[in-house]
Amino acid sequence: xxAILSPNSIWIVVPAFNEERVIAxxxxxxxxxxxxxxxxxxxxxxxxxxxAMKAGAIVVTHPINLGxxxxxxxGITLALQRGAECIVTFDAxxxxxxxxxxxxxxxxxxxxxxxxLGSRFLGDTINLPKSRKVLLRAATLFTRLTTGLRVTDAHNxxxxxxxxxxxxxxxxxxxxxxxxxxxxxxxxxxxNYVEVPVTIQYxxxxxxxxxxxxxxxxILLDLLVRRLHQ
Amino acid sequence: xIAQYSLTAGLAAIAAIAFMQIKKAILICSSIMIAAxxxxxxxxxxxxxxxxxxxxGIGRGTDLVLYIWILISFFxxxxxxxxxxxxxxxxxxxxxxxxxxxAEHQHPxxxxxGPTVRKTxxxxx
Lengths: 230, 125
Description:
The complex is a heterodimer. By secondary structure, chain A is of the alpha/beta class. Chain A has one domain (7-229): Spore Coat Polysaccharide Biosynthesis Protein SpsA, Chain A (Alpha-Beta Complex). Chain A has helices at 23-31, 48-54, 68-81, 100-110, 130-147, 163-168, 178-189, 204-209, 215-229, and strands at residues 10-16, 36-41, 58-61, 86-89, 115-126, 159-162, 193-201. In chain A, strands 3-2-1-4-6-5-7 form a 7-stranded mixed β-sheet, sandwiched between helices. In chain A, helix 2 (48-54) links the parallel strand 2 (36-41) and strand 3 (58-61). Chain B folds into 2 domains: 1-45; 61-105. Chain B is built from 4 helices and no strands. Residues 112-119 of chain B have low confidence and may be disordered. Chain A binds chain B through residues 40-41, 43-44, 49-50, 53-54, 58-64, 66, 70, 73-74, 77-78, 81, 172, 174, 225, 228-229, and chain B through 78, 81-82, 85, 88-89, 91-92, 95-96, 98-100, 102-103, 106, 108, 110-114.
């Protein structure tokens, strides 16, 4: 990684599905510092696409709903095509903290790493329900056991990666199991990673939009099937 | 006798279909054919099922057939699920390629998703 990353070389990838309530504010906030923002509209049925475009994002729209993992891979592919040196994945629902993007990208440079993974358990959480915390801990334990990487937060969508790191990713888990898959692929790539404390803010909106507890069963099933499929 | 004839016809049809597809998947089709022929044999000599069942530690022939059927069903389910996954991956690749091509040709003023639909004014008569 270069010693200094200019904002122009950093591309923010925002997967979005029916986020018309918040998408414009998120994009406008991001673009104050980072001109290159890609919104991957996962075939939303509301005004997400037009609002994101009006806010100045590059919008790529899936013709059918594929899932967050697929949206991330599409955004990463487009960012690489456009020459990104660093890619940050950022949730559309506003639960990530924009000033912490710099913390992630600086960690890549400072530690000469190819992945900087946000960790809410090293950092802070606001209004995290206890039941969700237990499930996230369980998911992290599962990921640690299956990948061997001693991560503290496996399902955090806030992360940064170098161009080299991004080229090593090939997400095949279209749905929410992609988070564990990313850690798995990082482990297989042999590249360096660093965990960075971040703050995740839960609101009634993010909790309603986010994963339901039962989804963790589907994630587990997806991961087991993927192991069969490999 | 009606049941025996019906089962024989059904199993024979399965064997015939497997035979017609044998070039596409020789191992699976051969297995299906053998299973179907063996099934026909058991339909007409059902006491053999019990003999075989007792050899492998199962009491009744019907139980043996049931267990084998459950195993075949589970195996088929996994195969279909994996094939479905393959197809879904292909669909994802196509959808992604289409989305990226559209993004390349995206104009800032274009706010519609998917194919652009333009309204035409009716022709004046």
